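User: Design a sequence. Structure:
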């Protein structure tokens, strides 16, 4: 008995010690801030004392690359795999989702004993099985869509007092959005200070709309040479900076700063054509200004990360997960369909520790189409084999070759002079394309069924070349159309509500339309259902439909009496009938 008790307590003590020794991890990912969006990056107009301090305390990657826009960067950062490979090459349509069989940092952390949380912007799918709570995050507080006020977000949301989703449930929040996300992150850290934790703090700022707090805007009131729009953009960054300071203070107060790996970066080039650190291009560009961003990594307890060191080695968002696996000693053994998942990125640990030089080839692309097009808006990145003979090549769209070592602004096309280098990069790209595009034809499906009893289908997730992505698009009188690919999880009865406006808007079907809605048509697969009972006061049209399980396409429209005019239903609410009966206290 004594031996058993000894072993029991010894194991518990060892387990607790192991937990305590694991470093915490915080990733702060801002939206649209760009390479030059920090004072320490050389921007003399910006007031960012806390980010400047983080800059001084960190190992800094100065040649770090992401995708040129939103969702793809998030998908690649969270999986360690190219966004194209994981099916995320758009900001709307189902190709803004992260494929359901992919493994995220949160999955890995959670399976290694970490408490996991996300605060802010997700933008990888708002329906099951793509939501953050389906992807390894035990705690989530987010807005929906790609930004506050976008089509799938709560109607009328602004940066002040927004309605957010906590673990999938609506919750009224009070205050300014960035303040809320940081405050909630600090609260989570306080509650989990005795456990290793992973916090993914992904702000929607400084993305438009540029609506900062007045106090932050006053900082730029008398700055000459700045447009009002740029002042607002910078004010949003200053607010982020203030919150970085508060987060750091909380880590100090809780005694967690030393053993917390803190990573700061942003999701793409700047959305504003302003100071850019001498780079050409901004958000969405294949030039470096569209995808080259700061990466700061701080871990005070560890000697593995030299303070204040710049590393100009080629690196990318796909390296974050492999690096954390290395530093946090995480187990990573996952399979899909019996095949081991391999990462596209590498651990940056050896490059940091020994200043090693590794020749790398990377690809950055901007697709934003239903089906990716080979060579579209593409940059191929390659450094030289030898550190002493230093080149940093960029091949843009297969036609323009630049050496960043001698031509930072990418103005001198040397493809004719260095044709062999260009050919080497093209050959790499051809192999890369064949590899990452193997599943391009697989369409992500929203699951409808007992495990996702209530689903909202939003027009921004339509299969369409240009679906409405913002609430301002929904407000327009123009008619748009599309369909949703879904997977019916279980055979049974389902209750459909077709809305022109979202439920919370309080609007009727007939407000701001191009014509009077008289009929509603719901098409599921090859079956079509028609309603002719719409009145001027109706807010929605409804159907009860018996569905067999399986993959189907769903479309919903409103028409005039002769069906000569049609407009898509921008919001469709689907409830499994069992849940509908329970929710409405109806007994069979």
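Assistant: Done.
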């Amino acid at each position: 008995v004594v031996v058993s008790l000894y072993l029991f307590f010894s194991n518990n003590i060892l387990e607790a010690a192991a937990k305590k020794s694991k470093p915490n991890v915080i990733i702060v990912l801002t939206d649209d801030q760009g390479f030059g969006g920090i004072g320490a990056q050389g921007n003399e107009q910006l007031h960012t004392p806390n980010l400047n301090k983080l800059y001084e305390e960190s190992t800094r990657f100065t040649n770090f690359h992401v995708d040129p826009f939103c969702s793809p960067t998030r998908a690649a950062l969270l999986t360690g795999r190219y966004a194209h490979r994981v099916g995320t090459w758009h900001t709307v349509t189902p190709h803004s989702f992260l494929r359901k069989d992919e493994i995220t940092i949160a999955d890995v952390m959670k399976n290694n004993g970490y408490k996991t949380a996300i605060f802010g912007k997700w933008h990888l799918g708002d329906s099951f099985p793509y939501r953050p709570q389906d992807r390894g995050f035990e705690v989530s507080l987010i807005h929906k869509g790609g930004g506050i006020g976008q089509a799938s977000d709560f109607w009328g949301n602004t940066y002040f007092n927004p309605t957010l989703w906590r673990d999938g449930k609506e919750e009224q929040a009070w205050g300014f959005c960035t303040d809320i996300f940081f405050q909630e992150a600090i609260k989570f850290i306080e509650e989990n200070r005795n456990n290793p934790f992973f916090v993914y703090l992904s702000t929607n700022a400084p993305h438009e709309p540029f609506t900062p707090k007045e106090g932050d805007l006053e900082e730029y009131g008398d700055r000459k040479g700045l447009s009002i729009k740029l002042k607002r953009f910078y004010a949003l960054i200053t607010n982020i900076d203030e919150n970085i300071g508060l987060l750091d203070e909380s880590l100090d107060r809780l005694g967690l700063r030393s053993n917390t790996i803190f990573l700061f970066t942003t999701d793409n080039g700047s959305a504003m054509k302003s100071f850019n650190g001498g780079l050409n291009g901004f958000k969405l560009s294949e030039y470096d200004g569209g995808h080259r961003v700061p990466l700061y990594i701080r871990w005070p307890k560890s000697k593995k990360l030299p303070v204040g060191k710049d590393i100009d080695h080629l690196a990318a968002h796909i390296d974050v997960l492999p690096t954390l696996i290395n530093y946090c000693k995480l187990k990573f053994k996952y399979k899909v369909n019996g095949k081991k998942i391999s990462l596209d990125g590498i651990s940056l640990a050896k490059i940091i520790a020994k200043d090693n030089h590794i020749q790398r080839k990377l690809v950055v692309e901007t697709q934003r189409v239903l089906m990716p097009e080979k060579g579209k808006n593409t940059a191929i990145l390659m450094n030289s084999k030898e550190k002493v003979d230093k080149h940093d090549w960029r091949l843009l769209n297969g036609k323009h070759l630049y050496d960043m070592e001698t031509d930072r602004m990418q103005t001198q096309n040397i493809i004719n002079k260095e044709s062999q280098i260009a050919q080497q990069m093209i050959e790499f790209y051809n192999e890369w394309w064949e590899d990452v595009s193997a599943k391009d034809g697989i369409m992500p499906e929203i699951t409808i069924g007992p495990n996702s009893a209530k689903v909202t289908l939003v027009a921004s997730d339509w299969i369409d070349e240009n679906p409405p992505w913002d609430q301002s698009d929904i407000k327009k009188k123009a008619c748009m159309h599309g369909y949703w690919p879904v997977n019916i999880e279980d055979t049974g009865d389902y209750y459909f509500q077709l809305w022109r406006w979202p439920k919370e808007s309080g609007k009727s079907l007939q407000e701001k339309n191009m014509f009077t809605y008289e009929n509603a048509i719901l098409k599921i697969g090859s079956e079509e259902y028609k309603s002719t009972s719409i009145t001027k006061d109706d807010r929605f049209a409804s159907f009860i439909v018996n569905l067999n399980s399986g993959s189907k396409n769903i479309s919903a429209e409103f028409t005039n009496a002769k069906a000569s005019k049609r407009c898509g239903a921008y919001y469709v609410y689907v409830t499994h009938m069992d849940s509908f009966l329970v929710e409405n206290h109806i007994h069979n």
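Residues 228-253 form the longest helix (26 residues). The two ends are 58 Å apart (CA to CA).
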